[in-house]
Specification:
globular; single chain; 47% helix; 12 helices; 7-stranded mixed beta sheet; two-stranded antiparallel sheet; alpha/beta; Glycerol-3-phosphate (1)-acyltransferase
C-alpha cells in the first residue's frame, strides 16, 4: 500500500506535491500533539519567535514529506534537473582534483534527499557517493527508501562499525560520502555540545573521518524554491573551529549558520535534544 501510494504521488508535478504537502503539514501539526510540541518549542527556543515563521515551518515540513516519493521514484535525470540553481560547485570540482575524498555534511534542511542524488548524477563515475544510512523506525517505509536511493554511483553504508569502515575506504579511494550531521548518534558515538544554546548529543564521526583521510569537508543543503520551481543547492566549506572550541561545537555552529539562512525549511519537529539510550544526560 505504501509503495502504491508513493508511485501515485510521484506522478504529480512538483508544484502540486508542494501544495498538497503544505496542507499535509498543517494536518499533521494539528493532529499530532507531540510533534506539534517539538516543532514549536524547538523553533522558538532557537530564537525564531515570529508567528509567520512558525506557519511557514509547518507548511515546509509537509512539503518535505510529500516531495519524497518523486525524489525517490522519478528518473534520476529528472530529479537532478530539479536543481535549477547551484552555488559553490567549484568547491566540489577542486576537491575532486585533490583526490582525497569529500565529506558532505547535509543537515535536515530543505530537501536533503536531493543533494546526494544530484552529486551522484553530476559527478558520475568520476567519484561515487556513499551515504550513511540508518534504518527508519517505520519499517513499511524502508523498501520505498531503499528503492529510491538505489541510483547509479550512489551507495549506502549502515550506521555501525562496518559502515564506518565502508565510509573510510570510500574516502581513501578519493570518493565522496554523505552524513546527516544533526542526527543524534548512539551512545559512545558523540559528545554533548551546544546547539542553539541547548546541549545536544552531537556526532564526532565526521571529524574523525576527516582527520583519518584528509578529505575535504563541505556543507550542503538544497533550498526549496517557491511554487515548486525546484531547488537551489548551496555548498560551502566547513569553517575551522574557533579558539578553544570543540569539533562538535564547531559542527553545530556551522549547522546553526546554515539554518539561519533558511530557518523555515529546517526539520524542527525532530527531537534533536533527546538523550540516547545509555547516555548520561548533560548536567
Amino acid at each position: 500500500m505504501v509503495l502504491g501510494l508513493a508511485h501515485l504521488l510521484a506522478l504529480l508535478p512538483l508544484s502540486v506535491l508542494h501544495l498538497l504537502g503544505a496542507l499535509c503539514g498543517w494536518l499533521v501539526y494539528l493532529l499530532a500533539p507531540r510533534y506539534r510540541r517539538y516543532l514549536s518549542t524547538n523553533l522558538r527556543a532557537a530564537g525564531f519567535t515570529e508567528d509567520v515563521l512558525l506557519r511557514r515551518a509547518i507548511a515546509e515540513a509537509g512539503k518535505g514529506l510529500l516531495e519524497l516519493p518523486a525524489i525517490w521514484l522519478r528518473p534520476h535525470a529528472t530529479v537532478a534537473g530539479w536543481v535549477v540553481q547551484l552555488t559553490g560547485w567549484d568547491l566540489v570540482e577542486a576537491a575532486l582534483m585533490r583526490r582525497r575524498g569529500i565529506i558532505f555534511l547535509t543537515p535536515h534542511l530543505g530537501c536533503f534527499e536531493i543533494t546526494a542524488q544530484y552529486y551522484a548524477y553530476r559527478a558520475g563515475a568520476q567519484a561515487a557517493l556513499t551515504a550513511l544510512y540508518r534504518r527508519p523506525k517505520n519499517k513499511a517505509v524502508e523498501p520505498l527508501m531503499l528503492t529510491g536511493r538505489n541510483r547509479p554511483n550512489l551507495r549506502l553504508a549502515s550506521a555501525d562499525l562496518r559502515g564506518v569502515r565502508v565510509l573510510l575506504r570510500a574516502l581513501k579511494q578519493g570518493e565522496a560520502i554523505g552524513i546527516l550531521p544533526d542526527q543524534a548518534p548512539g551512545v559512545g558515538e558523540g559528545e554533548w555540545a551546544a546547539f542553539f544554546g541547548r546541549p545536544a548529543y552531537t556526532m564526532t564521526l565526521a571529524g574523525r573521518l576527516a582527520e583519518a583521510s584528509g578529505a575535504q569537508v563541505l556543507l550542503a543543503y538544497a533550498e526549496r524554491l517557491p511554487q515548486g520551481r525546484g531547488y537551489h543547492l548551496h555548498l560551502a566549506p566547513m569553517p575551522a573551529p574557533l579558539a578553544g572550541e570543540s569539533q562538535a561545537r564547531a559542527l553545530n555552529r556551522a549547522v546553526e549558520d546554515l539554518i539561519r539562512l533558511c530557518p523555515a525549511q529546517y526539520v524542527w519537529g525532530y527531537n534533536r535534544y533527546k538523550v540516547p539510550a545509555g547516555a548520561r544526560a548533560p548536567e
